[in-house]
Amino acid sequence: MKPPTFDPAAPQEAEKLPVGSARTVRAYVRELARRHRRPFAVLVAVNAVASIASMVGPYVLGDLVQKLSEGAHELHLERCVGAFVVALVLQTVFTRMTRLRGAMLGEQMLADLREDFLVRSVALPPGVLERAGTGDLLSRITTDVDRLSNAMREAVPQLSIALVWAGLLLGALTVTAPPLASAALVAAPVLVIGGRWYFRRAPRAYRSEAAGYAAVASALAETVDAGRTVEAHRLGARRVALGDRRIAEWVAWERYTLWLRMILFPVVNATHAIALASVLLIGGSMVINGWLTVGELTTGALYVQMLVEPVNMILRWYDELQVAQVSLARLVGVREVPGAAQDGDEAPDGRTVLADEVRFGYLEDTDVLHGVSLTVEPGTRVALVGPSGAGKSTLGRLLAGIYAPRTGEVTLGGAALAGMSAERVRSHVALVNQEHHVFVGTLRDNLLLARTGADDAELWAALRAVDAHPWAEAFEDGLDTEVGSGAVALSPAQAQQVALARLVLADPHTLVLDEATSLLDPRAARHLERSLAGVLDGRTVVAIAHRLHTAHDADVIAVVEDGRIVELGSHHDLVAQEGAYAALWHSWHGDR
Amino acid sequence: MSLREIPYSDPGVPDTRSGFRFLMWLQRRQLRGQLVATWWGTVFMAAIAAMPAAVGLAVQSVADRSGKGLLGAAALVLSLGAVVSAGDSLLHRAAVGNWIDAAARVQQLLSRKAAELGSVLTRRVAAGEVVAVSTGDVEKIGWFVESLARFFAAVLTSLGLIAALMVYQPLLGLPVAVAVPVLAVAALPLLPPAQKRADEQRAKAGRATELASDTVAGLRVLRGIGGEELFLSRYRAASQEVRTAAVRSARMWSLIAAVQVALPGLFLVFIVWYGARLTADGRIGVGELVTCYGCMTYLLMPLRMFEETAMAWTFSKASAKRAAAVLAIRRTTEDGLSHAGAVPGGDLYDPSSGLLAPAGQFTAVVCGDPDAAGVLADRLGGHSPDAAGEPSTRVGGVALDELPLETARRAVLVQDKDPVLLSGTLRELLDVPSSGGVSAERALEAAQCGDVLSVLAQSLRTVARRADGQDRAAENGEAADPMAARLTERGRSLSGGQRQRLALARSLVADPPVLVLDEPTSAVDAHTEARIAQGLRRLREGRTTVVLTSSPLLLDRADRVVFVQDGAAVAAGGHRELLGTDSRYRSVVTRYEPDDGARTSAPRPSASPSPSPSPSTPQAVPSAEPAIEETV
């Protein structure tokens, strides 16, 4: 059977962030192992005790069988049973410890991994985030951490337990009767060949199967999310058909992995049966020839049967580890993002923002901005207007220090923004975009991030400055009210006010507003302008204006078209020039 | 039942009266699969249980110095191995088949339910429930339904084994018969607390994941303003809580593991002691002693199966209940069937507000109260769950609420304020039920999507380049077809304005007789909006179009503007005419607030000497006072 042609796990989009190379992954695993050396050693030790204790039973039985078949009169039954009971107590206690230590180790490693990842993520340079978006990171912290959970929680501890256990059993078999160990190993080639065949195919197949199943659920989630759109456009039947297609794709992978196991299972069962038969046959004839005792044979046969469980455990968890490796590569890949600009000696002297012959593009071969120069004097208000895709937003991001120009320079008070760290830049310039993220947590958390040391009075002052105090004061728990998804949901306008209050707290002297209110319902946006006024007061503002009344009030309007500034001047100047801006203004104002 | 038949052309009508009935309904759907699984499960477990007998036979033959007996025993081991092998594989195939059957059937039922409920879902808590059932509950439901067959197989084998022992070795069989039920239920009392702890751990893990994704989603804000350490320490605390809860849960599970070692172990000790004495007395042979020992270790398997089924039941109970509840939801507004089929044409008229949109014209609607606009738009499409009790909107005199839902939607397409872009290629996005009169190219052009197309084509080239590992596509200067580019979920990779324009293009392609658009260009810049207004008008020539907006650029293009205040159409006419005659209208569309006279849009530092009195409610409706003169 061939794997299905459609692979739901195949990337549909280019990875926006790097995936860790084999070397990075290996280095990380080594580091992880070093950090958890002690708990790992403890796990192996308690597991060894539990495994050895579990071997006492067959040993005692073999001993008894030997004595009974020799017709011995004195069985010392009490002593045997006593030893058995002691071993059982040990096995019980140490099995419990093994399970617990295994879980503790797994959880600790998992916690390390996810925390490491977030530490790396929050240190990413703002430019990388702007370009890559957060979608890729988000899928890494959810899907990949999830996949790793299984591996860390179960696969790593279980595999180490199983390996130690199997090794000790083979060792015990050798100690009991060396020929029996070699007799058991007769079956090994069957397992090795079958296992290799299986593991060459399994990890990829399971990844696709899981992705296929996730696709079934996400198609449904999308139908639910888009309920209104689906109904309005009469897409119901198509969504059902899509859901069925996703199920068909997923089931195709289920059939394929089932087929893989239909090969593996007989191989494993055959291995066990062959090992047992060979031990009985070879061992038995040795007993008959007097080279081995019947007691040793009994013990040996029971040990071989005990091998079934650790071998099955290894087969069960090994592919999980292989799948986890891919997720791990995606998590540690974040480490390979080139770091942010070093905080050089560049320190601004003054507040003038200046762009000088700036050229910039997102791809190597295509520039979006073609030699733009612009001076933003402290305290003035500059509006950037122009059609979509003209480069307004890009210019805004360069002025906010998020991207560094390819050629030319963007300076603040004479110092290049590109030479400063994100932390320094943001104490001077802030970019306000259409994302008004309200973090899950208290209202206080949501404000505190802008000025970590602020006291309540400062927080309330900030809320008042943006006109947000009426609704904030209405909250029973005040600043301790839990907001964000799952708690009190703030309206888009309130979310916007929170974002503005953060700016008041962060207090940068220059703001770049990129479509700050454009995602809002224009009817609600009207009421927000008062809040905005409270923030802009006394600051230098570069506004990317969608609404012409914003432009109208600016000191300087720059009309951007095709990556160039084509008109520059005050509202009255530009209207008098009768150019592109004037035409638009007349149309908007209805006074042609 | 074959996996090839999945997905089913008809997943059936489930019994949703209770969770248990739902489980039983699923069970009945796969009766054949259940019987097959039970059969092979019994064969598999019986063969495994017989293995110790073969080992005992071998030991006995060796003790008796019988080479022939040994050979026979080894042959028996191998043939039992073959039976085990077949039983194991075929049981697995049947069981997995049953699981897939149950899971796929529930997923199919859910997707049909979601499609049926449509807009009702977004208004009810049900939305989250449907997704929760699909992502979490389906697996548990499938698990329980599937485990039943193995449970019955385990019961059959255990009974058989006990019966066999009673016949051959009553002395040993009796203790085993007593012990098995005891051992089977021994760990059961520990399961509920263990499950509770596991649930706690899951809840904490969910919370940590939520915090992490929330932090990542807002990372641009954090990097732009600060507070990384604050959020990191918050996440660390949550992550450590997960760890603690997981270890707490592991304590319970390790205890269960210990009980599973200790109790059967004790019984094994008893068997060894008792059996050895019986052997010493010559009442049984050494081989039989080894057989009994082996049987006891093999009994562990059916014992685990009992536990698993008990666990599956406790886990799936709540899941089945939730699934049944979700599948039992119905649309509240019933399809009226007085007018079958025919799509009405003519003027669009809303009796509640008195809004009239003449057939074939471009009508713009300005709402004084922002919150009322969405409700109004919704009502214009008929069958609105929010408008129960209000008179239905009429098209050419026909009440939409009395038409079947499908016909009403065919007659009027309402694009709400937040239309969702479904993931897929751009071609798939624009492939919606339509009249066929408007091509995708024309719609995209009218909605000014040129820049979106080039962005998508660009992304396509990047993917091709990465996939090839070389610049083949780019070097050849091959124009990538943007229609083949994929949009991510909700079009998140695009800007707000780009998303809005694509959604508009989709509605234009549908080319409905009546198109209602609620704020279709609120995130679009003025330059582009002006062009869209022009394109929209040209493309909808002769069709009825209603746009709810306050943008002068759109209003200026309308044949007729209706001003709706407090739920009633209070003025109608041309945009410029209304600007001149209605001060409230002017205040809404030009953003001057008559009550304080201050320009609030962006006051200059010097131009705000005193704080303007803030209205107590932000939505305060401007009163009809003399308008402030325009400054230009």
Highest CATH level, the class of the largest domain in chain A:
Mainly Alpha
Low-confidence stretches of chain B: 469-478, 592-632
Strand content of chain A: 5-15%
- Record field, number of beta strands of chain A: 12
How would you describe the shape of chain B? elongated
Outline the structure in words.
The complex is a heterodimer of chains A (592) and B (632). Chain A has 592 residues and is α/β, with parallel strands linked by helices. Chain A folds into two domains: 22-336, ABC transporter type 1, transmembrane domain (ABC transporter transmembrane region fold), CATH 1.20.1560.10; 353-589, Rossmann fold (3-Layer(aba) Sandwich). Chain A is built from 22 helices and twelve strands. Chain A has helices spanning 22-35, 37-54, 56-69, 77-121, 126-132, 135-176, 178-185, 188-225, 227-232, 236-288, 294-306, 308-333, 392-399, 422-428, 443-448, 456-465, 469-474, 492-506, 522-536, 548-552, 571-577, 580-589, and strands at residues 353-360, 369-376, 381-385, 407-412, 415-416, 429-432, 441-442, 482-483, 510-514, 540-544, 556-561, 564-569. A six-stranded mixed β-sheet of chain A has the order 6-9-10-3-11-12. In chain A, β1 (353-360) and β2 form a beta hairpin. Chain A is elongated. The termini of chain B are far apart. Residues 469-478 and 592-632 of chain B have low confidence and may be disordered. Among the domains of chain B are: 12-169 and 284-327, no CATH class; 348-421 and 495-598, P-loop containing nucleotide triphosphate hydrolases (Rossmann fold, 3-Layer(aba) Sandwich), CATH 3.40.50. Chain B has a six-stranded mixed β-sheet with strand order 6-9-10-3-11-12, sandwiched between helices. Chain B has a four-stranded antiparallel β-sheet with strand order 2-1-4-5, with no helix packed on it. Chain B is 62% helix and 7% strand. By secondary structure, chain B is α/β, with parallel strands linked by helices. In chain B, α14 crosses α18 (526-539). In chain B, β11 and β12 form a beta hairpin. At the A-B interface, α3, α4, α5, α6 and α8 of A face α2, α3, α4, α5 and α7 of B.
